[in-house]
Give the backbone structure.
Amino acid sequence: MAIIGIDLGTTNSLACIFRNGRTELIPNELGTYKTSSVVSLLEDGTVLVGAAAKERLISNPQSTAASFKVWMGTERLIPLGGRSFLPEELSALVLRQILQDAQRYLGEPVEEAVISVPAYFNDNQRSATKLAAQLAGVTVKRLINEPSAAALYHRHCTQEQEDRQMMVIDFGGGTLDVSIVE
């Protein structure tokens, strides 16, 4: 059973795994590492996630949703193809796609994940992220602030042993986090 890391982003999402002493990005079904955080609903009920959904943003805006992460933890309903969805339900569809891609790539089940969230996310938004993961069929081992995840990755890559302060700037598609970490 694998445990993966997921960056559930406003515009794009991706997954990675730590194995054999290094971090490895997990490709999606198209062979790229970023999956667009976009969901589209076809007339027959088929759900599209990622690049295929993003292609429908202009041609079928009433059946396509993007940037729903900004509404996580709220009761805002997002109309999609004559139905309404909570942001965590749409996020669950993105997570489910990422999990399917990860399981295909790794050749084993993925039952747990560490998911990064913006540093400013409040308790409701964090709970909504956990609910999205639950709806997608994965247990959240931990939520981690996006700047903290970036700082840990930097430290791992540089193999720095000395503690020091650094500024982490995370320019996301819908968020900007600036943190001082030590």
In short: The helical segments are 51-54, 56-59, 87-106, 123-136, 146-158. Residues 116 and 144 are 5 Å apart (CA to CA).
